[in-house]
Each structure stands twice: as C-alpha cells, then as structure tokens.
Amino acid sequence: MKLVENAAGRLVPTEVNGRDAVPFAGVGGHRPAGRRAAPRVATCLDYPDDGDKRVGSIAEALEAVGLADGMVVSSHHHLRNGDAVANLVFDAAAALGRRDLMWFPSASFPVHANQIRHLEAGVIHHIEGSMNGPLGDYCSTGRMRGLGVLRSHGGRWQAIQDGEVGIDVAVIAAPTADAFGNATGDRGPAGCGLLGFALADSIYAEKVIVVTDNLVPFPCLPWQIQGNHVDVVVEVDSIGDPTKIVSGTTRVTNSPDRLRIAELAARFCAAAGIMRPGFSFQAGAGGTTLAFAIYLRDLMRAAGVTARFARGGSNRYMVEMLSEGLVEHILDGQTFDLDGVASIRSDPRHVNTSPFTSYNFHGKGNFASMVDVAVLGATEVDLEFNGNVVTHSDGRLLHGIGGWQNCLAARCAMLLVPSFRDRIPVIVEEVTTLCGPGELIDVVVTERGIAVNPRRQDLLDAVAGSGLPIRPIEDLKAELDRICGSPQPVPRSDQPVAVVKWVDGTVLDTVWKVG
Amino acid sequence: MKLVENAAGRLVPTEVNGRDAVPFAGVGGHRPAGRRAAPRVATCLDYPDDGDKRVGSIAEALEAVGLADGMVVSSHHHLRNGDAVANLVFDAAAALGRRDLMWFPSASFPVHANQIRHLEAGVIHHIEGSMNGPLGDYCSTGRMRGLGVLRSHGGRWQAIQDGEVGIDVAVIAAPTADAFGNATGDRGPAGCGLLGFALADSIYAEKVIVVTDNLVPFPCLPWQIQGNHVDVVVEVDSIGDPTKIVSGTTRVTNSPDRLRIAELAARFCAAAGIMRPGFSFQAGAGGTTLAFAIYLRDLMRAAGVTARFARGGSNRYMVEMLSEGLVEHILDGQTFDLDGVASIRSDPRHVNTSPFTSYNFHGKGNFASMVDVAVLGATEVDLEFNGNVVTHSDGRLLHGIGGWQNCLAARCAMLLVPSFRDRIPVIVEEVTTLCGPGELIDVVVTERGIAVNPRRQDLLDAVAGSGLPIRPIEDLKAELDRICGSPQPVPRSDQPVAVVKWVDGTVLDTVWKVG
After folding, report:
1. Is A508's Cβ below 8 Å from some Cβ in B?
2. Do A342 and A413 have their domain in common?
3. Which of A401, B64, B220, B244: CA 20 to 30 A from B187?
4. Is A62 inside a domain boundary?
C-alpha cells in the first residue's frame, strides 16, 4: 500500500479499497470534478400498477433486487442500538450464500456485533461507515479484510452523490410505510423521528428495499422516503427494540466537572455576543452538550433573547425551548427521545432535515456554515486545536464521526471536553487521529478554563473582561501534564486499518492497527 | 427532415431539434436505457458561508450563472397567466445580447406572448413546452425556428431526468423564499400553492435562480424547493399578478349540457362500483370536471362512501370534501383557487406532490396508476377511443398536455366531452393529433350518452341495467354527424411544427403547420 503525506502532514494511502483516493489538500484546497452519480433509469413497466411492491421476506427482497456477490449494501442508523434490520439482512444474505459484500451503514452500533461472524465467514468483505464499539475494535485490531472508511454524515452524502460509493442495494428500516414504499420515521412502534440518513441511499442506490413493521394504507404520510425510489417492500414482525431506539427520557450529566464545562460554554456564548436575537446554535445529545443547552436556555430567558433556529439532534430540552418560544424552529437531523419524536410528528416548526440540506460540502452551500455556534465533544484536542473524535489515545477506533466534521463549518465551533478521561489528558501534543483541522476549531472549553484559538482574535477581544477563565491552550496542557505526567506516546503500527475522510472526500488521516 | 410511421401509424420525425428521437413503439413498448442525468458536482467553496446568495437583479443573476448563447432556460407555470418572471428573464437576456436560447417552460400562457418578439429577434430559438394561446398559434403557423415539443407533466420530468433536455439555467418564481434559496409557493402575495413543476428543474439544472417578491429570514418553511440546489436569489417588486395566478373563487359550469355530462360521469362511477369505500379519484379544474366532483360528492354523501385520496389540482370543492371527511387526503399537483392555497398551507392531509411522485413513467411506479378514476377533457376523440388535447380539428395548436397523458394510467380514464364545439363534432373518424392511445381511454361521456371502450367488458358488465345511456361510440358519432354533417377533413401540410411526446419519451405524433 502506497502512503503519502497529505497537506496536514499525515501519512495516508493513495488507494482505498481498490479506488484511487485523494490526499487531504488543506481546508478548501480540493475542488471536485465530474458529475453526480446517476442510477439507471427505471420504468413503470417493471413495477405493479396498483403500487403494491410487497414481497414475503427479507430473503425474497434480496433476491428480487438481484443481490450478488461483491455488492454494496447500505443501511441507516436511525434505530441506533435498537436496530434489528441490518442484522436480519446479513443473516439472510449469508443464508442465500452471498459473499464479499460491502456493508455501508450510516453508522453501526454494538447491536451490530452480529456482523462479526459474517465478516469472519466472508459474507461481508468490509465495512465503510462509523463503527462504534465491537466492530470498531474488530477493525482496529486488523481483522477486517478491507480498510474501514470513516466519513461524516455530510461526507457520506458527498461520497454517494459523487459516485465514490455506488450503492447496489439500500435497505431502509421504516417505522411506518405503505406498500408503495413511502416511509416515515415519525410514527409507529419503532418510531425514531426521521429517516434523513437514508435519504441519499433512497435517491442514489440502484435498488431500494423498505422494511417495516407498521404497514399503513397508501399514502403513508409524511413520506420522508418517497416510494417512487423504492423497489420492494417487506413486512417483518419488528424492525427493532423501541427502548434502544429512542430513550424515553433525556439524561443530562450530573458530573460537577461537566456541568462546569457546559456552564462556561454557555457563558462564553453570551459574553462573546454569539447569543444575540435571531442567532442559531447546534448542540448534540451528549450529557455535557445537553447541559450546555439548559444553561444557554436560562441565559436566553434572562436576556430575553430568542434563537431563529436550533439544529438538532432534538430532545426534550430543545422541544421545550420551541414550545416556550425561545427557539423559533428546530432543524432536526435525528431525534433522540420520545419528546423529540412527538414534536417532529406534530409541530410544523420542528423540521425534518437531511445530510443534504445540513452538511453536504459538495452542494450549493449547506446549513452548517450558517449556524452561529456548534457545541461538540472530542476524544483529544492538540496544541494546534486539531480535534480527534474517532480514536482514543491508545489508538483504538471506538467512535464514528457523525456530523462533527460538518459542524466545524459553524461561525464558532466549540469543543467541550473534560481535562482528563481515565486519567489521560485530553489536550495532547498531537492528536492520535486527525478528524478536524485546528483552523476550524475556535474554542476549547474544559472545567479548568477556556482556550480560544489565536486565529480568532475577534472572539478573544469580545470576551476580554468577561471574567471567564480564558487561557492559552499551552497553559491548560501544561497544567494537565503537571497533574498526570505527560502520557507516554503509544507507538503506532505501520498497518492502516481505516481512513478518515474529510468533508470534501479527501483522505485526512489513517487509523493504524493496534493490539 | 426524415419521417417514419410509428406504432400508432403516425408519421413522426426521427430527429427533433438536433437530437435523435425514438418513434412511439406502442403502449409499454419502449424500455429506457442509460442512466439519469447528472449535473456537475458543486462545492460549498463557491457559495457564501452565510448562505446569502442574493444578487441585485435578474440580469445580474443571469450573468452570475453564466448564461450563454444557445443555452436552455427553464421556468415553471404555477403562476399561470399571472406570471411576470419568465417575461422579465427573456427581456433581461435580450438586453444582455444573448441569442438562440431554448425556453423550456412547464407551460406557457397568453401572458407570455411577450416572448414572440424575442423569438422574432432571435433571442429565443424555440420553445419546448406547452404553448397555450398566442404562442401555440405562433408555432402552429410555422414561424418558430425549431420544433415545438409537447410533453405531459410526467413526460417533462422524464425528459429532464433522462437527460433528453439538459437545463442550463432554471428560473424559479417563488412566492416566498429566503436568501439561501429555500422557497415555497404556499404563502406570500403571489401565493400559488405549490411549486412541484419546478422541482425537477431545481434538482437537475446546472444553475438555479430563485426570483421572489417575498423574502423571509432563513429558514423559509416549508422548503418546497431546497436552497441547496439554488445558485442565486433575486428580489423583485412583483413576481406576478395574484388575480391571474389563482382565482378567488372556483367557477363551475352552468351549461346544462356540461352539467349533464358531469352528472352522467358521476353516476357512472357509482354504477360501475368505482365509487366504493377507500377509492381514489382525480378531477381537473375545468368547469365540467368541477361539476363532476360536486355530483360525485353528493353521491358519496348519500352512499356514505369516503375516498382514501383525491388527486388535485385542488380547489374549494375538494377542500370542502377534505374538511367534511369525504376525502381523507388531497395529493395535490397544483392549486387553483385561494381555498386550495389556504388548505395546503395549513392542513397536513393536503399534501404537496410533484410530477416525480405522481406522473414520471421512468420511476419505480407512480401515483397515476393507483388512481381508481381520472376524469379528463379532450378536444377530439375518435372511434378507436384515441384522444387529442393539443389541437383543434382545424389543426391549430392551442393547448398543452398537462397531466392528461399521465392520468390515462388510472384504472378508469374517462373523457368528459361535449358533443360539439363551435358546431364541430368532438367524436371524429380519426383524431387530428394523437395524444392518448385509445387502449388507455376507457369511457367517453357526452351529454348524448356514454361510450365504453369495448376493451373494458368489465365496465360494460358492471353498468348493465344501471339505466345509464350506454351507447357504442359509433352510434354517438353517427348521431352527431347527422346533426352537423360529417366535417370536411382539413387538409394538412407536410411541414412539422411540433411533436407530441408520449410518457416514455417516444414521439407519438406530429403537429403540422397550418394557415
């Protein structure tokens, strides 16, 4: 495998899973050429006039769409760790004797550890997509035949749209659907809110299978996925475990350190003038960012400030802000709890988005760069403000990128990180895996102080005299190292097991074999 | 120009405006090859981070998107005869000195007679799209340089999707929009309901310009057109005359003959068992089909039958049926009056559709074939049940196809026609222009009786003994000819001025020069 140093100084392969790969060329350094992917033209001659596309089982569906060895099979992760469908699909493919499939999930979860036996048996050749938990570990330890390819949500849309990944068969788990294939995530026993992560798959895949446990008469409304893209529909008893799809309640951190981080971040937004009438923000679903949203809400109430929109992942707190009028719209990418699902089903101000609208860098703009502040986590951040979200400092691949890279386009991108995890400092000399270039990361908030990227003199000026503990990142690092001792660098192997793509499809970094 | 006889026995050119054309091969006789059209991949690098894509004028917009001689410029017709934008665009193109443009409207109206001077001056080379009124006459009399190409709404989507027509610049008149280009038709001073006819243009055009007279802060909701497809946004004082965009009230026919036709058609639906619980219907916005909907409503009330869905064009009567619960959903393609606009804006059961969902024959099914009965008009129908909607018996091109061809896919396609127009019988030996093959036309309803296509013995059996005036079409024709005298066939020239495409993109017939 040929490796070159990219514009970030990272060693990356020039070929990934048999395709030429473009090394990262710097932020804004790569311009796409070519045309969007174009599936074969379909004809109504091949579909029933009465619109009933049902077949009897997942195996029948896979045969109906012509699943063959070596094909790319995609799935979405809106059912999260409650998903039953992706496992059923590969179990059926194994029973049909198919081999060397590429699984292209928008993300995988511990429940998908089931696929390890299909990787071992050769049914699945490799996985391109976020691998959380056991599959990350499987890849990390060099047991997967191909390279893992980690893409952001926007990068996955970009890769599909640009034809970097041609999906042969998309399987869309649908909480509600009709026999024509119209599908929605906002209702049904396995309701998950929305299905935006499957939208590109439905548009660009050659063949599309909708799997549902809640068939309704045509028309299924809303049609988040349009039946006109769908080849066959399968009814199953259950597409997943509702208790693991959305949480019944949202859990805010109760760690004093993390509460302090959240509070500092919210106060920073107020002090810097980001929290002004008509502003916008994005906060994820983690315990710390949830707490951030609650602190921000209190500051907004006190200041009488309302936001034009908040970007989801949505949850109870965001829905409360919408109801209270503190937020005029939620532009939602995924729904994390039952309040979020109920809201997106019934409130027209709570809007279904997709990686196309929100994150695709190869579009005519996207929403991410219009967000005033995005609040994110990280596993590591270094002195250049570079961020890592996929590996831990021991080099193990344990997390996906999600929308993290895409959110760095916000006017202010803030990383909310504890100073230590398992007694290892989070601020490091150089990140183990580069996921986000430091020039896009504006603020790092820890419980011991706030580091502002020196490139953002405007922010430094804005918060001067605010009383916030603004400190150079080097000072923060030095303090952490004094407490813990600077960690021993973990020697890395020279065997790539995965690559991290940047939002423009270039290769930003390599994940190396561990263990 | 080389002409061949197609499967319908019609003489058609093998090349249309410099492109090879496929002669009609019979209903279901043509299978598409190849892949969908694919615009160049865009990049956020070329669009402002703050999402503000506004430029100062339509001329600036045309320059910003690189309008060049010979390009294809598209527009939609949701503003109908009130549209100001298409005229402004070609006025601006003329002022910029551009030549030989192809105008590709989803339809044109008398207000667009303005374009005749641009055709004469060479700014516009030719028009592909329905030409109602003066432009139809201009084309009909052989003054246009290229061939007119008449497509159904579904055929226009198919042509764009399949790459038969590559749109260089789409101009989308938007009753409400934000600076990012998100746009909706359901509100604003020039509110027209929806923008579905512009959807393909927004997705497949290389460059997209949104023109609005009602700019709102991001996010414009709903986003019927997604700003992620849009290059530039222009604010103008007015995109059109609201009084000519939607009618304030819906006008039902008061002609006794046409009321009788409407009543017979509704009674036929009841007698034939089409009007059964959970059925679906589509009725257009003409005076007779409106009256049909009212008669049908009364029969539904009396029988206690509700429809699962009705396909729009929507209007006051359909909205009333929705409110009353006689219709569960309106799947709307265009909105014809203010009640329709108000309903689609506020009632989630009144749903925005597009030619993709409803009509595209080169999709994985569409809605049209799932409709139990579609009620349509025609200018002529012949003894083989072939229908004409674009020319009159004198050969003049005066109408567009609209969704007419697409609706023939319904389980029962009914033509509601008066026996005579201007003392010329509507039932003829052979249609002047073939727009719909007779095998798809099931029933012809006139005030003098109902002719059922002999292919539909099931319908004949169902209405036997109903007391409805069922008559062979030959009998009806003979009666009309006795009254008027069989009309003199109008000799046709041998100069094609336009072609009629079938829903699969093949050439169904030719329109010949008159006068």
Report:
1. no
2. yes
3. B64
4. yes
Residue A1: which pLDDT band, with cuts at 50, 70 and 90? confident
Asked whether residue B27 is domain-assigned, the answer is: no
Q: Is A41 within 8 Å of B35 when comparing Cβ atoms?
A: yes
Is residue B156 less than 8 Å (CB to CB) from chain A? no
User: Measured between CB atoms, does A137 come within 8 Å of chain B?
Assistant: no
B residues 382-441 lying closer than 8 A (beta carbon) to A: 409, 411
- Is B276 near chain A, with CB under 8 Å? no
Question: What domain range is B115 assigned to?
Answer: 32-128+165-242
| Judgement on whether residues A181 and A318 belong to the same structural domain of the protein | no
Closest Cα in chain A, distance from residue B32 (Å): 7
Biggest CA-to-CA distance, chain A: 72
For residue range B401-427, what is the model confidence (pLDDT) as tens digits?
A: 999 999 999 999 999 999 999 889 999
Is the predicted ipTM greater than 0.95, yes or no? yes
The answer as to whether A15 is a domain residue is no
- pLDDT, residue B1, reads 85
Helix, strand and coil in chain B, % to nearest 5 = 30, 25, 45
pTM of this structure: 0.97
Do A264 and A233 share a structural domain?
Answer: no
Low-confidence ranges of chain B (pLDDT < 50): none
Residue that is last in its domain, among B207, B242, B277: B242
Asked if residues B330 and B309 have their Cβ atoms less than 8 Å apart, the reply is yes
Task: Give which of A440, A514, A504, A501 is closest to A13, Cα–Cα.
Answer: A501
Q: What is the mean pLDDT of residues A272-277?
A: 98
Distance from CA of B53 to the nearest CA of A (A): 9
A515 pLDDT band (50/70/90 cuts)? confident
- Together in a domain, A226 and A364: no
Alpha helices in A96-241 (DSSP H): 115-121, 134-140, 153-161, 199-204
**Is B53 in Cβ contact with A365 (below 8 Å)?**
yes
Q: Which positions in chain A touch B411 (Cβ < 8 Å)?
A: 49
B218/chain A closest Cα distance in angstroms: 8
**Across the interface, do B51 and A365 touch by the CB < 8 Å criterion?**
yes
**Residue whose token pair is 């496929």:** B22
Q: Compute the distance between CA of residue B221 and CA of residue B183 in angstroms, rounded to an integer.
A: 8
What pLDDT is recorded for position A249?
67
Q: What digits encode the pLDDT tens for the residues B52-61?
A: 999 999 999 9
Does B370 contact A180 at a Cβ distance shorter than 8 Å?
Answer: yes
Domain match, A230 and A347 both: no
As a whole number, mean pLDDT of residues A378-406 equals 95
Residue length of chain A: 515
Residues 366..385 of A with a Cβ closer than 8 Å to B: which?
Answer: 366-367, 369-370
Tokens of B83: 């549209």
Percentage of chain A modeled with pLDDT above 70: 100
Nearest chain B residue (CA) to A361: B44
> What pLDDT sits at residue A284?
76
CATH code at position B200: 3.40.1080.10
Does one domain contain both A385 and A476?
Answer: yes
Query: B139: helix, coil or strand?
Result: helix
B362: nearest CB among A32, A41, A50 = A41
Of B43, B208, B218, the CB nearest to A362: B43
- Within a domain: residue A476? yes
Q: Where are the alpha helices (DSSP H) in A76-198?
A: 85-95, 115-121, 134-140, 153-161
**At residue A396, does pLDDT exceed 70?**
yes
The tally of domains found in chain A comes to 2
Same domain, A102 and A230: yes
Given A209, A224, A244, the domain boundary residue is A244
**Strand pairing category for A176-177 and A183-184:** antiparallel
Same domain, A238 and A264: no
CB contact B306 to A (< 8 Å)? no
